[in-house]
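Practice problem: Creatininase family protein
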Amino acid sequence: MNLREMNWMQVEAYLEEDDRIVVPLGSTEQHAYLSLFTDAILAERVALEACAPLGVPVCPVVPYGMTPRFLAYPGTISLRSETYLALLEDLLASLYGQGFRRFVFVNGHGGNTPIWSTLSLWFEEKHDCRALFHDWWRSSETWRLVMETDPVAMHASWMENFPWTRIAGIAQPDGEKPAIKPEQLHDATPEMVRDCLGDGNFGGRYERADAEMHAIWSVAVEETRRIVAAV
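Answer key — structure tokens:
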């Protein structure tokens, strides 16, 4: 269920039977020729498709995350860690106060992952809560299929190029871009990152056949569904 398509009375009725809710986490940042909203699109979509048969509501995706190294690319928006943590804690406090007790964060942006160690402290203070943080693209079965499909799978490369992350009328480059080592960027300024990456793809092919992408997506949805069912 999509929370944006429910009214408050429907949510209240749901809470009489269940206390699970899913929160997709995304980012607005450069993805080479793909949408700036790629991480948000994928996190929300995989959450909605996973939860549809379970009847578990899905919050609107949080579209901003922590992505400071891409700030030299216009359109990228980055939150400070303290801002991001405060936002998520306020979100949780709102939902907890209404009766939600089991939370799944479906994360679509690697830069958000470090927040979990701090955010988990919020749950430690609430002894009647359970929570899981799920990086959908690198969960075990999904990542295994990605590696079997093409081991050069990096930011803004083919692995994020789905029909729903492409920009209409924008052609993808042919061929394969030489891959960088992510550690090259650890101490780089945003300007240095842009100089190093150019278009923003970390390396590899820009796209693969839609049949391969749909196969990966099906595994990701099923794996996410099992996470939500088990929380």
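Discussion: Residues 24 and 106 are 5 Å apart (CA to CA). Students who identified this feature from the tokens alone can consider the problem solved.
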